[in-house]
Request: fold
Amino acid sequence: MLELSNITLGHFILLSCVLFTIGMVGVLVRRNVIVILMSIELMLNAVNLAFVAFSRHHNLADGQVIVFFVMAIAAAEAAIGLAIAISVFRKFNGVEIRLFENLKG
Amino acid sequence: MDIYPIVFHFFAALVTISALGVVLMPSPIYSALCLALTMLFLSGLFFILDAQFLAAVQLMVYAGAVVVLFVMVLMLFDLRNENQPFSGNWRVNLSKLGVIALGFILIALPCTYLMKASNSEWLQSRGLETKKLAELLFSKHIFAFEVVGALLTVVLIGAIALAKAKGGTHARTE
Reply:
């Protein structure tokens, strides 16, 4: 089934799938908010890999431009997520995801 | 004999192992280190896809900035006593894993079809130049570029406003 000596587009997309799945498992089963944010980064990176592979396959640079934007958004998301984690830690003295239940306006 | 299959399988295995490390390591600081490794090996994959600029940006932005930010925040917290890294009981987690596995199979099956249908000549052909990327970024996608710039400014102010408090992270609450 798996061709080992012949690297096709499918190999890269399958790797991207695996990476996305690992990231999603991390988001669903971990308790620590910081590890959840790291898993989200993994998922974004899986999408980046798929974008670059498709861009190479079709010889179009637009995919790489979008990866550039995704990286900027991912950095922004990490900064905001960590800032929220810091303020939650200050209030509840922990960064578990269930502490977010106690937040209200 | 060409080098692409060996390099691809090497980096693919390393990326998968280190990504599993992010999720499975009980200590968040080891998760962060595994995340740095994942970014490093992913930039290797970007190199074999002839995306040199993105590989360099991946190293600088992710391994250099984002992971360092994660590690810094982890050091700010004092998380020595994390006794339960995974949420829920094993039955809930098993059902979550089952649903994810189903979704994975549904997406991975077309990939195996793609493996048989397409060839590997696309990797040998001449790749895109970074110049092409720059031209597109500053002509066709200039509006999105400016919007991302504005977004980063907003995020900068928002992050300061969210994390700012008198007395730092260990401020006493009365």
